[in-house]
Design a protein that fits this description.
- The complex is a heterodimer of chains A (327) and B (286).
- Chain A is α/β, with parallel strands linked by helices and 327 residues long.
- Chain A folds into two domains: 200 residues, P-loop containing nucleotide triphosphate hydrolases (Rossmann fold), CATH 3.40.50.300; 66 residues, no CATH class.
- Chain A is 32% helix and 23% strand.
- In chain A, the strands form two sheets. An eight-stranded mixed sheet of chain A has the order 6-7-8-3-9-10-12-11, sandwiched between helices. Chain A has a four-stranded antiparallel sheet with strand order 2-1-4-5, covered by helices on one side.
- Chain A is globular and about 65 Å long.
- The mean pLDDT of chain A is 87.
- Helix content of chain B is 75%, strand content 0%.
- In chain B, helix 2 packs across helix 12, helix 5 packs antiparallel against helix 7 and helix 10 packs parallel to helix 11.
- The radius of gyration of chain B is 22 Å and the shape is globular.
- The mean pLDDT of chain B is 86.
- Classes of the chains: A alpha/beta (327), B mainly alpha (286).
- At the A-B interface, helix 2, strand 6, helix 3 and helix 6 of A face helix 8 and helix 9 of B.
Chain lengths: 327, 286
């Protein structure tokens, strides 16, 4: 059974002057044991997607206005806050962007892991403590007994991130969402942490949704990738196919933007124009002002999601012929 | 981990005792508590023993601070008076902190109409004159120490409510709050286990200084005859009855006044030192 299925999700936020709609048409799915990358520029709605999956939108004045989200066949959108509290941490777990501030400064880090366990598991404090130390050890935290008793400010960024991962895993979730888990870390530690994520997920056979703007990380670790642009998943499919044969014009341009060693100077491409802000999303296809294949229809019609033959979903009017043919 | 714990304590103590004024404040407070606790042992006479042959006598070897219009030993009365001051100061501020923290936390955490409602109540309370509330309390429950405590508790909480509301407003957007929520914690856990300990330090400082203010207010109400009733030796009441003999026996007013001044100074100095001790600025920037 599909672990998590998100279909044409729409989200809006209430602001001082009316509503904004940061998500319009987010679709992707994760199977058990799969690593799915969610990639996009800043402001494309990656974090909002994570918050939506965790049911955290009401806390930031957001709401889901359309689409579907199912987890192990259960409808997530119908959960009440009380039911959400049993899901969060136990079935779904979110690791937020910044490990430096994800830990409460006034508690020992080990106790924060234990707190997460005792929220969901019927377990004694002593046993939870032992499990927390084991978990910390399995995440390659050196000398876990000692680190257990330390406060966040006493730990390095890499160690803090490991503690945060331990908190995310402590109650045995089936899906782990990692929102930009490495942005705040030194480059030297990034690779380690990313590898740790994959290992932790694969070992437990759980799903991992890796949110990042780093295409290198995606290429290295992910089975599938969802490319987001301005609140829409424009392309979703097998990571290898997407990278080798990008279908959506945005994905194509994005891949041209990655510098490679030995590249001729000055040959690095940039996508013309700017990422639109959530208040000024263009009508029709949100990418059309920057698209090099733009057609007149693009500014009028919102592209529907099209399933191509190799399991790739793409939202681009370029492929509407394909849609007509199969229909 | 006891090693680092005591190490941290020692480091803090060193930092604190380097602050001379804070140390003086601390010593004053400790002395006050000792006087209040051991008043029966330390006072040379009973606070109500009258020596009618020896009224309004100036400070002497038998009576360090002289005697009042009933020939009662002023020193003994000042020492016993510290009991009432400490009692009123601590209980009333304790109660107002409890009320203020509860209301301020709810307002800051939930925001929206809850915040608008509670903040309005807080602002209304803020604008109430303490003495008026005390008069109202006298009408309801009669004059006495309890009346003073209730009057202070009912008016002082507003400042703590505002303080903690601001703290919570700032802290509730911290990533660790979302992280805790993502673990499945409910509002209660987030508010009282995570936000609260991070928000409380400035309130501790304000409450320390608040005790000093409450002691002055108690004296004010005592002076007006609304506080502790005779023969209980409240500093304010002593000064009030001394006014009649101001030019004959000024010591009856001077010594309780001095005691009060030093006490308030102690709480203020200690409160200021706590700002450094509790790393309040550091925490705010963390």
């Amino acid at each position: 059974m599909t672990l998590l299925q998100v279909e044409s999700l729409r989200v809006r936020f209430k602001t001082e002057d009316g509503y904004v709609e940061p998500l319009d048409g987010v679709s992707f799915e994760i199977e058990k044991g799969q690593v799915v990358g969610l990639v996009g520029e800043t402001g494309s709605g990656k974090s909002v997607t994570a918050q939506a999956i965790m049911g955290l939108l009401p806390f930031v004045r957001g709401e889901v206005t359309g689409g579907r989200m199912t987890f192990m066949g259960e409808d997530l959108l119908s959960l009440t806050e009380q039911e959400w509290q049993k899901y969060r941490g136990a079935k779904l777990s979110l690791i937020s962007q910044n490990p430096m501030t994800s830990l409460d400064p006034v508690y020992r880090v080990g106790d924060q892991i234990v707190e997460g366990m005792r929220l969901h598991l019927d377990i004694t404090k002593t046993k939870a403590r032992q499990q927390a130390i084991d978990l910390m050890g399995s995440l390659q935290i050196p000398n876990p007994e000692r680190v257990y008793h330390q406060y966040p400010h006493q730990l390095s960024g890499g160690l803090k991130q490991r503690i945060v991962i331990a908190m995310g895993l402590c109650a045995g979730p089936l899906l782990l969402i990692a929102d930009e888990p490495t942005t705040a870390l030194d480059v030297t530690v990034q690779a380690q942490i990313v590898a740790l994520f994959k290992e932790a997920a694969v070992e437990r056979g759980i799903g991992l949704l890796l949110i990042t703007h780093d295409l290198g990380v995606i290429a290295q670790l992910c089975d599938k990738v969802a490319v987001m642009y301005a609140g829409t998943v424009v392309e979703f499919g097998d990571a290898m196919s997407v990278f080798n044969e990008p279908k959506h014009p945005y994905t194509e341009s994005l891949l041209h933007c990655i510098p490679k060693l030995g590249m001729q100077k000055g040959s690095l491409m940039a996508i013309p124009g700017n990422v639109p802000s959530v208040r000024t999303f263009p009508k029709g296809c949100r990418y059309h002002p920057r698209c090099r294949y733009v057609m007149p229809v693009c500014s009028l019609q919102k592209p529907a999601e099209i399933h191509l033959e190799n399991g790739i979903n793409v939202a681009c009017l370029k492929y509407s012929n394909y849609l007509r043919k199969t229909a | 981990m006891d090693m680092t714990q005591s190490g941290r304590f020692r480091r803090r103590w060193r930092k604190f005792s380097a602050n001379r004024l804070g140390l003086i404040g601390f010593i004053i407070i400790v002395a006050l508590i000792v006087f209040a606790g051991l008043a029966n042992k330390l006072a040379p006479y009973s606070y109500k023993r009258q020596e009618l042959s020896n009224m309004n006598s100036p400070p002497s070897r038998d009576h360090f601070m002289g005697t009042d219009e009933f020939g009662r030993d002023v020193l003994s009365r000042v020492i016993h008076g510290s009991r009432i001051s400490v009692y009123v100061g601590v209980i009333s501020v304790g109660m107002s902190v409890l009320i203020g923290v509860f209301i301020g936390s709810l307002a800051g955490y939930y925001g929206g109409w809850v915040d608008r409602f509670l903040s309005t109540v807080t602002d209304l309370t803020w604008s109430l004159p303490e003495i008026l509330v005390a008069l109202l309390m006298v009408a309801v429950i009669g004059a006495g120490v309890e009346c003073v405590i209730i009057a202070i508790a009912l008016t002082y909480w507003a400042q703590y409510a505002r303080l903690i509301r601001g703290q919570i407003l700032m802290l509730k957007n911290e990533v660790y709050v979302e992280a805790t929520r993502s673990l499945g914690a409910n509002d209660f856990t987030i508010l009282f286990k995570h936000l609260f300990p991070n928000a409380i330090a400035p309130v501790v400082v304000a409450a320390t200084i608040g005790i000093g203010q409450a002691i002055v207010l108690e004296a004010t109400l005592g002076f007006l005859g609304l506080g502790a009733q005779p023969p209980l030796p409240s500093w304010g009441a002593m000064m009030s009855s001394g006014t009649a003999y101001l030019f004959i026996s000024p010591w009856v007013i001077i010594f309780p006044g001095l005691a009060m001044m030093i006490t308030v100074l102690g709480f203020n100095l200690f409160g200021d030192a706590l700002v450094d001790l509790l790393d309040i600025k550091e925490q705010a920037s963390m």
